[in-house]
């Protein structure tokens, strides 16, 4: 069972915590992580790209010249795809790229990434994250005291407006709620910060 030090916001060790091996101690499954990441990115696509077919561009209602006798190739419309200002053949149309993956696959991908953070020593557990008022410099000081640099993801157990507002102006730092956890954010960060309450809720949901 992985064991982690627990720090306060001043960077001082205050206790230890035993992490659930079923969540933080499994062998990361890269194939599942890749599959779930592709699904996440596909679901983010708007799918609003669109081109006009020859039926939708303006003009071209009249046959440009007679069928035979001119020596030129036969043409039915000056808005056919081969003409300048013609319609687009087989171009993109608005569509949905969304599809679903199995719930157990999503959970395995999350657990794989959490375990990877433990293995790579990129996980920091804090006793609690409390900011009395929204101040960026308070969060900057906390990150400095915890010796955390680079892209950082903070996963909060619930809504915490002060922490969110205090961290959103710090480059490379993102705070999210536990119910919005996803593989993209976990992969896109170098450091992961979890309050003890978040760890307990993760163990309730994923164990």
SSE order and pairing:
Layout: E1 3-7, E2 13-18, H1 21-24, H2 30-44, H3 103-119, E3 123-126, H4 136-145, E4 152-156, H5 161-167, E5 173-177, H6 183-187, E6 191-195, H7 196-206
Parallel strand pairs: 1-3, 3-6, 4-5, 4-6
Antiparallel strand pairs: 1-2
Q: What best-fitting shape do the alpha-carbon axes yield?
A: elongated
Q: How much of the sequence is in beta strands?
A: 5-15%
H/E order of the elements?
Answer: EEHHHEHEHEHEH
Strand order of the largest sheet: 2-1-3-6-4-5
Distance between the termini: 13 Å
Sheet with the most strands, sense and barrel status: 6 strands, mixed
- The percent of residues in helical segments reads 25-40%
In the predicted model, the low-confidence regions spanning at least 5 consecutive residues are none
Structural class: alpha/beta
């Amino acid at each position: 069972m992985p064991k982690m030090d627990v720090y306060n916001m001043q960077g001082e060790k205050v206790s230890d915590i035993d992490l659930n091996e079923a969540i933080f101690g499994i062998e990361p499954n890269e194939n599942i992580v890749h599959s779930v990441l592709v699904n996440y990115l596909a679901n983010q696509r708007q799918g609003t790209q669109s081109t006009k077919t020859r039926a939708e561009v303006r003009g071209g209602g009249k046959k440009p010249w007679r069928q035979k006798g001119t020596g030129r190739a036969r043409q039915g419309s000056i808005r056919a795809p081969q003409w300048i200002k013609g319609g687009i053949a087989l171009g993109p149309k608005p569509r949905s790229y969304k599809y679903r993956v199995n719930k157990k696959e999503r959970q395995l991908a999350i657990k794989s990434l959490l375990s990877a953070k433990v293995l790579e020593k990129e996980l920091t557990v804090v006793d609690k994250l409390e900011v009395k008022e929204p101040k960026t410099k308070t969060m900057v000081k906390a990150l400095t005291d915890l010796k955390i640099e680079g892209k950082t993801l903070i996963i909060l157990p619930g809504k915490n407006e002060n922490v969110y507002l205090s961290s959103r102006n710090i480059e490379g730092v993102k705070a999210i709620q536990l119910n919005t956890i996803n593989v993209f954010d976990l992969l896109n960060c170098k450091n992961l910060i979890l309050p003890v309450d978040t760890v307990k809720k993760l163990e309730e949901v994923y164990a």
